Amino acid sequence: MIVLVEAGKDDVVALDMPTRIWAGIDAGIDNVISSAAGNGDEAVVEVGQRIRKAGWDQVPWVNGAWPPMDQVISIRLTVAEWMFAADEARHAIRLYEELGDDESAQLGRDALAVIESIGR
Question: How many domains does the chain have?
Fold first, then answer.
């Protein structure tokens, strides 16, 4: 389900997804942050940290741990933040395909499908 809360690239959009997909997005953004920090790209680090913090604040943690991976959760980010996550997923999918990591590539495709539903 998509809920448009505001309007524009700064629009806030809530996307529902299984925890597994958000956990994959979170891990991918963590990789982007690590790489950007190593390259001195503070702007990317800032956006990535903001996305991860927003997710952490919204995940319905269970005794300090992720909820069940099949539990559907709702995450609200701006359209620009979702597009940042989509770009990361596209990049990661190519890398995972090159490595032959079909499971991780599929998780990226699943995340991308959820995020791209914003435009539908």
Answer: 1
- Which structural domain, as residue segments, surrounds residue 13? 2-119
Nearest CA to 55 out of 94, 25, 99, 100 is that of 25
Long-range own/partner contacts, residues 27-31 (CB < 8 A, 24 or more apart): 28/85, 28/88, 28/89, 28/92, 28/108, 28/111, 29/85, 29/88, 31/88, 31/92
Q: Give the global pTM.
A: 0.88
Q: How far is CA 20 from CA 39, 76, 92, 119, in A?
A: 29, 16, 16, 22
What backbone phi and psi angles, to 5 degrees, belong to 23?
Answer: -60, -40
**pLDDT score at 10:** 80
* CA–CA gap between residue 97 and residue 44 (Å, rounded): 24
Instruction: Give the model's pLDDT for residue 31.
Output: 93
- The span from the CA of 107 to the CA of 24, in Å, is 7
